[in-house]
Amino acid sequence: MQKHKIFDISLFVSSLIVGLLFVPLEVDLTKYLIVSAIYLVFSVIYSNLRIKHGNGTGSYDYGVSYTQSMSLFAGPLGLLFYEIVHRFIIFFQRKYAKTADENEFTDTLYNIGSFTLYHTVGYLFFFALYPYVETIPFGFFLLFFVCSVIISWQSDALLVCTFYLSGNIRTWSEVVQFFKNRSILDTGKVAITNGLLFYFVMENHWDMLIVFFIMNYIVSKSFLSKHETIQNEIERDRFREMAYTDFMTGLSNRAMMDKQMVEINGTNEVLAIVVADIDKFKHINDSYNHAIGDHVIQHFAGVLKSHTSKEDCVFRSGGEEFTLFLRSRSYEECLEIVESVRSHVSAHPVHVEYKGSEAVIPYTASFGLYFDKMSEELPMERAYIYADQLLLEAKDLGRNRVNVSDGQRVMIHS
Questions:
Q1: Could you tell me the pLDDT band of residue 142, with boundaries at 50, 70 and 90?
Q2: Cβ contacts of residue 20 below 8 Å, gap of 6+?
Q3: What stretch of H or E contains 124?
Q4: 396 — phi, psi (to 5°)?
Q5: pLDDT of 165-185, one tens digit each?
Q6: Whole-angstrom distance, CA of residue 406 vs CA of residue 373
């Protein structure tokens, strides 16, 4: 049996022993059954609203727990009975809905055992200190907050143990990060919620108890809806970024280039379109391998990024071909940038590991630069064709060149 499952079962057995130490039940049985029924209804409903946070391949439910107020009302034995019924209702509910995890049964035992054990500690701590704080202003809620902090520390410690035993936490840095994820605001929310619930139960304010549960459900439902909306927006942005990103180089891809061209069309913006291509790239692949070719592409992409600004657009438009939109610059400035890229590439070969030793891969690149106003008469698509044609001419003229046009004259730079 896996270590984390043995740990879960041992917690459950320990909770049974602890619960039996507090025999008999010290509250009125009828009131206990009424309170338990109310708590069960809303706890089961609330369990469907909980946000799941993953940690490796494991996960844990994160939400407001009502167990603290139940433990103070019913004691450890009453809490044990409540947790057994509560957790197995959720267990069978998930089994019926076919949403149960592979380890759902031992996870259920873990929840029963851990909640009973650390809330028993909170129970003992609360009633040991209550006589000293009951006369202090807000002492009742301050004590609840302190108990909530103690309970949350115990909860995190037990979770770290089970995550470590299951292999989901492996390093001390992960342990520290796990504890840092605990929010003091969440702890305060749990303390105030359970403090009010405990007060309503002890004072027999059944209407206030039910109204508070309903209000908490509505607030939680609203929060979950907003959380899901934010998560959907994040996922949508992530997929959009994936759709427009070349993952080998980290540059924008051809789809983003086409999108940018549509946005710039007809704006009368003056810019330079540069089409660049690594010279004799097939020879590099044939002489070494495609992995070395990928390193050369990444090196060239890094040079392009280092010589351009945030206002510029750099795309991997296909294979070993790249396209740049140089913006907010004069013709001379654009030419200077492209020429500096060309000279940098030819002077800085790629250093890679090849067949167990370092290999130096020299390479060059050719460029076609077209500079003009992007008007309705000159759409970006046509300007791109002009730049691409200039690149082809640079290749025909011997490669390692910048072939440029400002719309009136053509110049060759080598």
A1: very high
A2: 77
A3: helix 104-133
A4: -65, -30
A5: 988 888 888 888 888 887 888
A6: 10
- Percent pLDDT > 90 in the chain is 66
What does the pLDDT look like over 79-89, one tens digit per residue? 999 999 999 99
pTM: predicted TM-score of the whole model, two decimal places: 0.59
pLDDT in tens, 281-295: 999 999 999 999 999
Distance separating alpha carbons of residues 47 and 95, to the nearest angstrom: 14
Contact criterion met (CB below 8 Å) for 301 and 316:
yes
Task: Sort strands 402-405 and 365-374 into parallel, antiparallel or unpaired.
Answer: parallel
Alpha carbon of residue 400 to chain centroid = 44
Distance CA 113, CA 129 (A): 25
Q: Two tokens at 294?
A: 């990928």
Give the pair of three-digit tokens for residue 222. Answer: 């609203």
414/63 Cα distance (integer angstroms): 66
> Residue 271 pairs with which residues in a beta bridge?
327, 372
Q: Which of 410, 45, 40, 1 is nearest to 216 (CA)?
A: 45
Side by side, the strands of the sheet bearing 365-374 are 313-318, 321-327, 269-278, 365-374, 402-405, 410-413
Taking every pair of Cα atoms in the chain, the longest distance, rounded to a whole number of angstroms, is 99
Domain boundaries, the chain: 3-239, 254-413
CA–CA distance, 393 with 70 (Å, rounded to integer):
81
Three-class HEC string of 38-50: HHHHHHHHHHCCC
**Domain covering 254-413, topology:** Alpha-Beta Plaits (3.30.70)
Long-range CB contact pairs, 58-61, < 8 A, 24+: 58/162, 58/163, 58/166, 58/168, 60/159
Alpha-carbon gap, residue 189 to 65, rounded angstroms: 10
DSSP 348: S
Contact 235, 345 (CB under 8 A): no
3-state secondary structure of 330: coil
| The predicted structure's pLDDT at residue 48 | 66
Three-class secondary structure assignment of 7-34: HHHHHHHHHHHHHHCCCCCCCCHHHHHH
Two structure tokens written together for 283: 């020879």
Question: 253-257 long-range CB contacts below 8 Å, 24 or more apart?
Answer: 253/315, 253/316, 253/317, 254/315, 254/316, 254/317, 254/318, 256/315, 257/313, 257/315, 257/317, 257/323
Note the pLDDT of residue 62: 44
Question: DSSP state, 63?
Answer: S
